[in-house]
Design brief:
mainly alpha, 0% strand
């Protein structure tokens, strides 16, 4: 039990360090790790999101303190993201685990490829269009709940790609994720019950310890090599479960 707690605490700590630096990857790294330990997809996503209530609160506060948050962007993202997240959590909790696990693994592998592409691909300047932001939030919340992660790659990647300032996008997405993941977690708890989520304790401790470093790391760690490494890890751990 202690070994399991320490293992999940280490996973939570490292995943949150990466998330704090990139504005993405806590969910996909944590869910991928839990699936590798044999945790069912719905439970893995639920455990990850319960953990993220604590990590995103700490990380969001860190970004507010370091003035990385665009409050107008948060107001546009949050309502749509919460609705999408609730729908995705309800659907995942209602689907048979044997059917959904390969689909979740395919989704995670796709997210890994997307992260690598964003790291090595060219950046095309694009006009910033505010009206698309709620749709990005809704899609990010839906897929984040169903895949156990993906809010960061989808929302952060899309908004930066559309021309928003990277620093404000990372800070705003981290803060908004607290509201979205709280909604997702509440939906999972209603659908699955709390007893299924006991393994969240280790992830919570490790993630919360690392979360305050997010605002500090975002401007100091080189993002391109870190993104490539994260993407390749996600791909390598997801592909075996597809088959």
């Amino acid at each position: 039990m202690i070994d399991s707690f320490l293992t999940f605490a280490l996973i939570g700590f490292l995943a949150q360090l990466v998330d704090g630096a990139l504005g993405m990857a806590f969910g996909v790294l944590s869910t991928t790790s839990l699936l590798a330990f044999g945790v069912p997809p719905a439970t893995a996503s639920a455990v990850t999101h319960v953990t993220e209530i604590f990590t995103t609160a700490a990380s969001g506060a860190s970004h507010v303190f370091h003035r990385n948050v665009n409050w107008h962007l948060v107001a546009r993202l949050a309502p749509a993201g919460m609705i999408g997240g609730a729908v995705g959590a309800y659907v995942l909790a209602s689907v048979d685990a044997a059917f959904i696990q390969p689909l979740v693994s395919i989704y995670l592998a796709g997210i890994g490829c997307y992260i690598v592409f964003k790291a090595i691909g060219p950046v095309w300047p694009r006009e910033v269009k505010d009206r698309i932001v709620p749709w990005i939030g809704a899609g990010g919340g839906l897929l984040d709940a169903m895949g156990g992660g993906g809010w960061g790659p989808i929302v952060t990647g899309s908004l930066i790609g559309r021309g928003h300032a990277p620093r404000q996008v990372i800070g705003s997405a981290n803060l908004t994720e607290f509201l979205v993941t709280t909604t997702i977690s509440a939906t999972f708890i209603i659908a699955l019950g709390w007893s299924e989520l006991s393994s969240a304790a280790g992830l919570i401790v490790g993630g919360v310890l690392a979360a305050p470093l997010g605002g500090f790391l975002v401007s100091r760690i080189p993002t391109r090599p870190l993104m490539i490494g994260v993407g390749l890890i996600i791909i390598a751990t997801s592909i075996p479960r597809i088959f």
